[in-house]
Specification:
Helices cover 77% and strands 0% of the residues. The N and C termini lie far apart (33 Å). The mean pLDDT is 92. It is an all-alpha fold and 131 residues long.
């Protein structure tokens, strides 16, 4: 779905998401309540609808919390922080990234992602030398 959205094929992207949701329901895949909103948020972001994407990420985070999926919560926090920065909502982004900063064992990818977001925050706060 994301690749289709990147290729500016939103109709096909949404069809792929619908098929993924159908298959997840058929398989009773509990984590789909986390993963599907994250993928929907990415497709929605690529369509320029960041506010809707933020709502989807909030839904995914609530479900990840309910399931005890801490690693996914970190990934969701990073993506939410990125979107908030894109929207110019710097203080909200900093607050949203707090769970990621406190994560005990970030993956290498999340560590690099967080470093990039911290650099963007530093630049937004006028501390370009830290960025």
């Amino acid at each position: 779905a994301v690749l289709l959205a990147l290729d500016d094929r939103p109709g096909e992207a949404h069809a792929a998401l619908a098929e993924a949701a159908r298959l997840a329901a058929e398989l009773a895949y509990a984590e789909a309540g986390v993963f599907l909103p994250v993928f929907r948020a990415t497709v929605t972001t690529l369509a320029g609808r960041r506010v809707e994407a933020l709502r989807l990420l909030a839904d995914a985070d609530a479900e990840a919390e309910r399931l005890g999926a801490g690693g996914m919560r970190v990934a969701i926090a990073l993506e939410t922080g990125r979107l908030l920065l894109d929207e110019g909502r710097v203080h909200e982004a900093a607050e949203r990234l707090t769970p990621a900063v406190r994560a005990d064992a970030l993956s290498r990818a999340d560590t690099v992602d967080l470093a990039g977001l911290r650099a963007r925050l530093a630049a937004a706060y006028g501390r370009g030398e830290r960025a």
